[in-house]
């Protein structure tokens, strides 16, 4: 049931940061799939019958949850290190599908999605356990959320919404700088120089713009992991377990679906190109 976090195999020291992070991401997906299996196995265990059994189960679940959360933290540490060398790829990742990229917010998932996911899974589990809950029984999952927990989740939700708004506004300001006077003037100079000859001038100016976006990415990623930590603090161990199961299922299945659709589109493009090449 344990899920040890092994960070030694996820180095970022290769000469090609883009290729290196892509390999790391594939490895991380495999880790997440293994974590999902461990979480699912733990969720299938019988509910404890005594206080001692409950305490022992909670201790085991906390160790598993800490390992899963540590893997998320490791992901964002590696991502931060990679972004120092190649921030552009983080905003246009080739390791994810075009379907996933369609819903990106500042280089990743929108933090409020975690809370919407929690509410969605809670609603599904309440519906599935409505008769047991009506009799006063515990469902042993997110259907057991009480009023105090919902209140704290609402407070967290409001905080995350405010933080998202601040980051979105800062990111918009950083993007608008591309149309600022320095780059507009430099673009005209490079045009008069004949285009390509002035690439070095643009390179120096764009580095500053990329650094602004890297800082926005760092803030967004911090908010993402802080949101997960905030939810874990509010939820009981078994509830957090079901949340992470839902998160892993959603991420892995959407990723698989997106990669399948990309493969279909690539195959169609090849079919179109083949007859043209024969002409």
Would you give an account of this structure?
The protein starts with 16 loop residues before the first helix and ends with a helix. The protein has helices spanning 17-43, 51-83, 87-91, 98-101, 112-128, 130-134, 147-176, 181-193, 199-234, 237-278. It is built from ten helices and no strands. The chain has 279 residues and is an all-alpha fold. The chain is 76% helix and 0% strand. It is elongated and about 80 Å long.
Topology:
Layout lengths: L16 H27 L7 H33 L3 H5 L6 H4 L10 H17 L1 H5 L12 H30 L4 H13 L5 H36 L2 H42 L1
Low-confidence stretches: 1-14
Radius of gyration: 23 Å
The overall pLDDT average reads 89
Quickly give the structural class.
mainly alpha
Q: How many separate helices?
A: 10
End-to-end distance: 60 Å
Number of strands: 0
What is the helical fraction, as a range of percent? over 70%
Query: What would you call the shape?
Result: elongated
Order of helices and strands: HHHHHHHHHH
Largest sheet geometry: none
Task: Name the beta content range.
Answer: under 5%
Q: How would you summarize what this structure contains?
A:
By secondary structure, this protein is mainly α.
Properties at a glance:
mainly alpha; 10 helices
């Amino acid at each position: 049931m344990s899920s040890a976090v092994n960070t030694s195999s996820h180095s970022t020291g290769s000469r090609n940061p883009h290729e290196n992070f892509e390999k790391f991401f594939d490895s991380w997906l495999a880790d997440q799939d293994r974590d999902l299996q461990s979480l699912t196995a733990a969720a299938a265990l019988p509910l404890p019958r005594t206080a001692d059994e409950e305490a022992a189960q909670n201790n085991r679940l906390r160790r598993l949850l800490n390992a899963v959360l540590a893997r998320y933290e490791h992901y964002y540490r590696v991502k931060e290190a990679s972004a120092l060398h190649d921030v552009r790829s983080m905003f246009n990742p080739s390791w994810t599908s075009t379907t996933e990229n369609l819903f990106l917010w500042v280089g990743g998932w929108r933090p409020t999605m975690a809370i919407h996911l929690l509410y969605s899974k809670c609603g599904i589990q309440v519906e599935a356990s409505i008769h047991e809950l009506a009799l006063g029984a515990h469902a042993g999952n997110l259907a057991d959320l009480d009023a105090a927990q919902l209140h704290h989740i609402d407070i967290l939700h409001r905080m995350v919404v405010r933080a998202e708004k601040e980051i979105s506004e800062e990111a918009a300001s950083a993007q608008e700088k591309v149309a600022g006077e320095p780059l507009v003037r430099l673009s005209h100079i490079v045009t008069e120089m004949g285009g390509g000859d002035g690439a070095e001038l643009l390179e120096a100016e764009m580095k500053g713009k990329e650094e602004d976006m890297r800082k926005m990415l760092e803030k967004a990623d911090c908010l993402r992991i802080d949101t997960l930590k905030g939810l874990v603090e509010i939820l009981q161990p078994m509830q957090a377990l079901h949340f992470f199961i839902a998160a892993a299922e959603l991420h892995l299945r959407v990723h698989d679906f997106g990669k399948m659709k990309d493969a279909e589109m690539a195959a169609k493009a090849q079919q179109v190109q083949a007859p043209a090449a024969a002409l």
